Amino acid sequence: MLRKYILYPAFTLAFCGCNLFNGKCTYELRSLDAAGQFNQNAAAFATAQVTLSEQRGSIQGQSIAWLVTSDALKGHVTSASIKDSSNPSQVLLNLPIASADRPEISQGAASSNMGANLAGFHDILAAGRGIVELQTDNPSQPTVTVLVTPTSVGDWVRPYCS
Q1: What is the CB neighbour count within 10 angstroms for residue 118?
Q2: How far, in Å, CA of 125 to CA of 35, rounded?
Protein backbone atom coordinates (compact mmCIF):
# COMPACT_ATOMS: atom_id res chain seq x y z
CA MET A 1 0.00 0.00 0.00
CA LEU A 2 2.82 2.43 0.89
CA ARG A 3 4.37 1.64 -2.47
CA LYS A 4 1.24 2.98 -4.23
CA TYR A 5 1.51 6.31 -2.36
CA ILE A 6 5.12 6.70 -3.40
CA LEU A 7 5.02 5.38 -6.96
CA TYR A 8 1.86 7.11 -8.21
CA PRO A 9 3.00 10.66 -7.39
CA ALA A 10 6.49 9.94 -8.73
CA PHE A 11 5.02 8.49 -11.91
CA THR A 12 2.70 11.48 -12.32
CA LEU A 13 5.52 13.98 -11.86
CA ALA A 14 7.82 12.11 -14.22
CA PHE A 15 5.31 12.00 -17.06
CA CYS A 16 3.18 15.08 -16.56
CA GLY A 17 3.22 18.08 -18.88
CA CYS A 18 4.95 20.27 -16.31
CA ASN A 19 8.44 19.14 -17.33
CA LEU A 20 9.58 19.72 -13.77
CA PHE A 21 12.53 17.35 -13.97
CA ASN A 22 13.99 18.59 -17.24
CA GLY A 23 14.11 22.24 -16.15
CA LYS A 24 11.45 23.61 -18.46
CA CYS A 25 8.95 24.48 -15.73
CA THR A 26 11.29 26.36 -13.43
CA TYR A 27 10.95 29.90 -14.81
CA GLU A 28 8.34 32.42 -15.89
CA LEU A 29 8.12 34.90 -18.76
CA ARG A 30 6.28 38.15 -19.35
CA SER A 31 6.38 40.68 -22.13
CA LEU A 32 5.16 44.15 -22.96
CA ASP A 33 4.79 46.10 -26.19
CA ALA A 34 4.46 49.89 -26.24
CA ALA A 35 4.23 52.45 -29.01
CA GLY A 36 3.66 56.12 -29.53
CA GLN A 37 3.99 59.02 -31.89
CA PHE A 38 4.63 62.73 -31.74
CA ASN A 39 2.30 64.59 -34.09
CA GLN A 40 2.99 67.88 -35.77
CA ASN A 41 0.53 69.58 -38.14
CA ALA A 42 -1.88 66.63 -37.69
CA ALA A 43 0.69 64.12 -38.99
CA ALA A 44 3.11 61.70 -37.36
CA PHE A 45 6.40 63.55 -36.90
CA ALA A 46 8.25 60.90 -34.86
CA THR A 47 7.28 57.36 -33.84
CA ALA A 48 8.66 54.91 -31.29
CA GLN A 49 8.08 51.23 -30.59
CA VAL A 50 9.41 49.34 -27.58
CA THR A 51 9.26 45.64 -26.69
CA LEU A 52 10.30 44.39 -23.26
CA SER A 53 10.72 40.74 -22.24
CA GLU A 54 11.52 39.44 -18.77
CA GLN A 55 12.37 36.05 -17.30
CA ARG A 56 12.43 35.07 -13.64
CA GLY A 57 13.08 31.84 -11.78
CA SER A 58 15.85 29.49 -12.88
CA ILE A 59 16.39 31.73 -15.91
CA GLN A 60 16.88 35.39 -15.01
CA GLY A 61 17.01 38.33 -17.35
CA GLN A 62 15.41 41.24 -19.11
CA SER A 63 15.70 42.41 -22.68
CA ILE A 64 14.40 45.42 -24.56
CA ALA A 65 14.20 46.24 -28.25
CA TRP A 66 13.25 49.56 -29.84
CA LEU A 67 12.66 51.32 -33.12
CA VAL A 68 12.50 55.12 -33.43
CA THR A 69 11.66 56.72 -36.78
CA SER A 70 11.17 60.22 -38.20
CA ASP A 71 11.70 61.30 -41.79
CA ALA A 72 11.73 64.96 -40.79
CA LEU A 73 14.33 64.51 -38.04
CA LYS A 74 16.68 62.14 -39.84
CA GLY A 75 20.17 63.64 -39.71
CA HIS A 76 19.17 66.17 -37.02
CA VAL A 77 18.94 63.99 -33.90
CA THR A 78 21.97 64.38 -31.66
CA SER A 79 20.86 61.99 -28.89
CA ALA A 80 18.01 59.65 -28.04
CA SER A 81 17.04 58.10 -24.72
CA ILE A 82 14.29 56.31 -22.84
CA LYS A 83 13.06 58.09 -19.73
CA ASP A 84 10.33 57.96 -17.10
CA SER A 85 7.91 60.87 -17.62
CA SER A 86 7.62 61.25 -13.84
CA ASN A 87 11.39 61.90 -13.66
CA PRO A 88 12.46 63.21 -17.09
CA SER A 89 15.84 64.43 -15.88
CA GLN A 90 17.03 60.82 -15.41
CA VAL A 91 18.07 58.84 -18.48
CA LEU A 92 17.08 55.20 -18.12
CA LEU A 93 18.68 54.02 -21.34
CA ASN A 94 20.69 55.85 -24.00
CA LEU A 95 19.77 54.80 -27.52
CA PRO A 96 22.43 54.84 -30.23
CA ILE A 97 21.76 57.04 -33.27
CA ALA A 98 21.65 55.13 -36.55
CA SER A 99 24.13 56.01 -39.28
CA ALA A 100 23.06 58.34 -42.08
CA ASP A 101 22.57 55.46 -44.55
CA ARG A 102 19.89 53.86 -42.31
CA PRO A 103 16.22 54.95 -42.54
CA GLU A 104 15.56 54.87 -38.78
CA ILE A 105 16.68 57.29 -36.07
CA SER A 106 17.55 54.44 -33.70
CA GLN A 107 17.00 50.70 -33.70
CA GLY A 108 18.50 48.16 -31.38
CA ALA A 109 18.29 45.90 -28.39
CA ALA A 110 19.82 45.63 -24.94
CA SER A 111 19.67 43.02 -22.21
CA SER A 112 20.54 42.64 -18.58
CA ASN A 113 22.78 39.72 -19.58
CA MET A 114 24.87 42.20 -21.60
CA GLY A 115 25.05 44.70 -18.73
CA ALA A 116 22.02 46.93 -19.31
CA ASN A 117 20.17 47.97 -16.16
CA LEU A 118 16.52 47.37 -17.06
CA ALA A 119 15.16 47.14 -13.51
CA GLY A 120 11.79 48.84 -13.22
CA PHE A 121 11.25 49.26 -16.97
CA HIS A 122 8.16 47.02 -16.98
CA ASP A 123 6.43 49.05 -14.28
CA ILE A 124 7.25 52.36 -15.99
CA LEU A 125 6.08 51.21 -19.42
CA ALA A 126 2.99 49.39 -18.12
CA ALA A 127 1.93 52.56 -16.27
CA GLY A 128 2.20 54.58 -19.51
CA ARG A 129 5.08 56.69 -18.19
CA GLY A 130 7.71 55.69 -20.75
CA ILE A 131 9.01 58.37 -23.08
CA VAL A 132 11.56 58.43 -25.87
CA GLU A 133 13.30 61.78 -25.85
CA LEU A 134 15.10 63.03 -28.94
CA GLN A 135 17.54 65.94 -28.76
CA THR A 136 18.01 67.72 -32.07
CA ASP A 137 20.25 70.35 -33.62
CA ASN A 138 17.17 72.37 -34.61
CA PRO A 139 16.99 75.51 -32.43
CA SER A 140 13.24 75.87 -33.01
CA GLN A 141 12.60 72.30 -31.81
CA PRO A 142 15.55 71.17 -29.67
CA THR A 143 13.62 68.36 -27.96
CA VAL A 144 10.99 65.96 -29.28
CA THR A 145 9.28 63.71 -26.75
CA VAL A 146 7.35 60.61 -27.78
CA LEU A 147 5.11 59.11 -25.09
CA VAL A 148 5.03 55.33 -25.52
CA THR A 149 1.90 53.71 -24.14
CA PRO A 150 1.40 49.97 -23.69
CA THR A 151 -0.33 48.18 -26.56
CA SER A 152 0.07 44.71 -25.06
CA VAL A 153 0.96 43.78 -21.48
CA GLY A 154 1.49 40.12 -20.65
CA ASP A 155 1.41 38.73 -17.14
CA TRP A 156 3.84 36.12 -15.85
CA VAL A 157 3.39 32.72 -17.54
CA ARG A 158 5.19 29.38 -17.32
CA PRO A 159 5.62 28.49 -20.99
CA TYR A 160 6.18 24.73 -20.69
CA CYS A 161 3.75 23.92 -17.91
CA SER A 162 0.39 22.45 -18.66
Answers
A1: 19
A2: 10
